[in-house]
Specification:
Number of domains: 3
Largest sheet: 4 strands, mixed
CATH topology of the largest domain: Butyryl-CoA Dehydrogenase, subunit A, domain 3
Radius of gyration: 21 Å
Shape: globular
CATH superfamily of the largest domain: Butyryl-CoA Dehydrogenase, subunit A, domain 3
CATH class of the largest domain: Mainly Alpha
Helix content: 40-55%
Structural class: alpha+beta
CATH architecture of the largest domain: Up-down Bundle
Strand content: 5-15%
Oligomer: single chain
Number of helices: 11
């Protein structure tokens, strides 16, 4: 692969990085890059061929390296909370070249663990957060259902009170880590008759070894290392203490956590677009047609120039959203509308771009880009989910329209 294009924003006068990441973050970047290069990347091709990876070994190795706990308090085994440090890790994790592997690690740290950290009590954190940070258990977030994708209020999974317990019945689908998670943060309706269905939703942490829980892996177009699953809950009995936060607060928790989910997805997509463009340029310099390198043809030079500009723009939007999120998490007065708008814009601008860059990468490879032996086809398949997951492009546009009073 060619040398990095280094699309990270710089100051024109000094050529130094803009003050988003501090010196310690850049030192951390070097460590993260070495870790990915030594512990993960060498195995990816074999894992991708098998469409599987050793769950316990990988999660424990990543956990032991401290990479799952960067944004969590030291009290629970973390090394943070430092969202910028975790952003560095997300950027370097892209170098594995496998969005499926990255998705499993991300769904655990950026979704399941985050919900427990933000909304759980000390007992929840001791039972789920601490071993999760160590990579000893794997978590998932269960919101999406077969009949309710982006419509969170439309979920039909129910929990009815029975003495000191709740009994859960329903189904979840397209759940990253759902096929093999040890526990899942589950969105259910505890008051289906509520006038406001947003206030009917509560969250529970449910162990997947309980009677009545069924897990099944789904076969996906891309993310072939991701253990995306479908889960059924047939009268699963959990204690009242399994509830995260107050009854009826689930929708609010989900909305509050969407911000980081979209920022983290934007970080991954913009970085993946950059790495894919680097690979496309490197191949175009090596591949010859009509007696000269493809990269020397004006059509490709212009395509690459356009893509590099769009990636830099998307990266700037992503970093803007990251700055707002970090400011909000560290106690600064951040306008919630501005944060919502920035995260939606970042996701909207990065996800389809990553796919379009991957598509151009396949194109410049010619017939080889369509062969399974070349990673270009995997980058193309992996990038396609971005405009769907975490809220579709259409949902992002609806959110943005509403922030402008439309």
């Amino acid at each position: 692969m060619a040398a990095d294009l280094d699309l990270t924003p710089t100051t024109a006068a000094q050529g130094t990085r803009l003050p988003l990441y501090a010196e310690e973050h850049e030192a951390l970047r070097a460590s993260a890059r070495a870790f990915v290069a030594n512990e993960l990347a060498p195995h990816v091709e074999a894992w991708e061929a098998a469409e599987d990876f050793p769950r316990d070994e990988v999660f424990r190795t990543v956990g032991a390296g401290g990479w799952l706990g960067l944004k969590f308090d030291e009290r629970w085994g973390g090394s943070g909370p430092d969202y910028l440090a975790h952003a560095v890790w997300l950027e370097e994790l892209v170098r594995t070249g496998s969005a499926g592997l990255n998705a499993d690690l991300g769904a655990h740290a950026d979704l399941a663990l985050l919900y427990v950290d933000r909304n759980g009590d000390d007992q929840h954190k001791e039972r789920y957060l601490r071993p999760g940070i160590a990579g000893e258990t794997v978590g998932a977030l269960g919101i999406t259902e077969p009949g309710a994708g982006s419509d969170v209020a439309g979920i039909t999974t129910r929990a009815r009170r029975d003495g000191d317990d709740w009994v859960i019945t329903g189904e979840k689908t397209f759940i990253t880590n759902g096929a093999w998670c040890d526990w899942i943060v589950l969105a259910v309706k505890t008051d289906p008759e509520a006038a406001d269905q947003h206030r009917a939703i509560s969250l529970f942490v449910v162990d997947t070894d309980l009677p009545g829980v069924q897990q099944q892996r789904l076969k996906m177009l891309g993310w072939r290392l991701s253990h995306t699953g479908q889960l059924r809950f047939d009268d699963v009995r959990v204690p009242a203490s399994a509830m995260l936060g107050a009854e009826g607060s689930g929708f609010l928790q989900i909305m509050q956590n969407f911000a980081w989910e979209r920022v983290s997805m934007s970080i991954g997509a913009s970085t993946a677009a950059q790495r894919t463009l680097e690979a496309a340029i490197a191949y175009a310099k090596e591949r010859h047609a009509f007696g000269r390198p493809i990269a020397s043809f004006q059509v490709w030079r212009h395509r690459f120039a356009d893509l590099a500009t769009r990636i830099a723009t998307a990266r700037a939007l992503t970093y803007h959203a990251l700055r707002l999120h970090v400011a909000n998490e560290t106690g600064h007065d951040v306008d919630p509308i501005a944060l919502m708008r920035a995260t939606a814009m970042a996701k909207l601008s990065t996800q389809r771009l990553a796919f379009e860059v991957a598509d151009e990468c396949v194109q410049v490879h010619g017939g080889y880009g369509y062969m399974m032996e070349y990673p270009a086809q995997r980058w193309w398949r992996d990038a396609r989910l971005g405009p769907i997951g975490g809220g579709t492009d259409e949902i992002m546009k609806e959110i943005l329209a509403k922030t402008y009073g439309l």
